[in-house]
Amino acid sequence: MVAQQAAAAFITGLLAFAILANCNTEGDILYAQRMAWQDPKNVLKSWDPTFDNPCPWEHVTCDNENYVIRMDLGKAGIIGPLVPQLGELKKLQYLELFGNGLNGSIPTTLGNLSNLVNFDLQENMLTGTIPASLGSISTLVNLRLYGNKLTGPIPPSLGNLTNLVTMDLQKNALSGSIPASLGNIETLRSLNLNGNVLTGMVPSEIVSLASVRNLSLNVENNNLTGTVTSAGLRGANEHVTCRLSRLVLWLGLALAALF
Ligand SMILES: *[C@@H]1O[C@H](CO)[C@@H](O)[C@H](O)[C@H]1NC(C)=O
Ligand SMILES: *[C@@H]1O[C@H](CO)[C@@H](O)[C@H](O)[C@H]1NC(C)=O
Ligand SMILES: *[C@@H]1O[C@H](CO)[C@@H](O)[C@H](O)[C@H]1NC(C)=O
Ligand SMILES: *[C@@H]1O[C@H](CO)[C@@H](O)[C@H](O)[C@H]1NC(C)=O
Ligand SMILES: *[C@@H]1O[C@H](CO)[C@@H](O)[C@H](O)[C@H]1NC(C)=O
């Protein structure tokens, strides 16, 4: 009995120590990211791993429980990959890393950022595919990946982002067809897919979103083909036939003008 109690006390102590020793998880994640980056402008010099937490560091914002809610490193001159551990910043709302020299692929673990609102990785040198896991970030409002070197298809799972307002994927090398599931995003106001190598037709679900919800849709400079039929338009011009390779649809404006 006594031996068992002593063992239990010892294990409890060990656990407590392990938890205390691991109390700067968010700082450890950011420090791992700092180590993976080249930082020629020395913007990360305040990211000192001996601090109790990363909240005093520059370009980082925390909530009142010391969880990181923002990373603001737009146009900071940083070069290198995103580390998979970034997906563990569970309260992160703003990931602002636009206009740097980020390379490598977008880690699938970023789909675990379940509080993310702004995902701004535009104008970097990212390669690889858009992870399907990003479709599980239900809080996402703005997804900006334009101006990278992303390849492969647009994941149909992005249609699960039912709070999304902006999706900007232009100027990459995305291929395949435009997923009809994007037509599920009733909140969407701007969909920019121009400057890729997308093929097939613009799904009628998306055309209808454009006419009913005032979505601004840009699919110029792709390899799209075919005829768009817009169920959302009334009157004689039920069929909108377009040369989709040179198409900018402002159907919302057109509809507003009709009424
Ligand atoms: C990212 O860029 C750096 C600096 O040019 C280079 O050393 C590194 O190999 C690149 N990584 C990838 C995955 O392209
Ligand atoms: C994070 O995402 C990856 C890949 O999507 C998954 O395998 C992993 O279980 C997730 N981790 C957590 C802590 O949710
Ligand atoms: C997300 O979308 C995909 C493809 O559209 C679907 O198969 C999947 O069940 C959806 N997941 C969730 C969690 O809604
Ligand atoms: C539709 O969107 C455009 C561009 O965002 C905006 O200028 C216009 O006022 C909107 N029209 C309506 C009817 O909401
Ligand atoms: C896109 O279309 C152009 C012109 O028709 C063609 O040369 C090119 O090979 C096509 N690209 C893809 C990826 O299909």
Automatic annotation (TrEMBL):
InterPro entries documented for this protein: LRR_dom_sf (IPR032675), LRR_N_plant-typ (IPR013210), LRR_R13L4/SHOC2-like (IPR055414)
Ranges where the Leucine-rich repeat-containing N-terminal plant-type domain occurs: 24-63
GO cellular component labels: membrane
Top-level taxon of origin: Eukaryota
Key words, A-Z: Leucine-rich repeat, Membrane, Repeat, Signal, Transmembrane, Transmembrane helix
A Pfam family hit: LRR_14
Signal peptide: 1-23
Record carries keyword rRNA processing: no
Membrane protein topology class: Single-pass membrane protein
Subcellular locations according to the entry: Membrane
Limits of the Disease resistance R13L4/SHOC-2-like LRR domain: 85-251
Record protein name field: Leucine-rich repeat-containing N-terminal plant-type domain-containing protein
Lineage per the UniProt record: Eukaryota, Viridiplantae, Streptophyta, Embryophyta, Tracheophyta
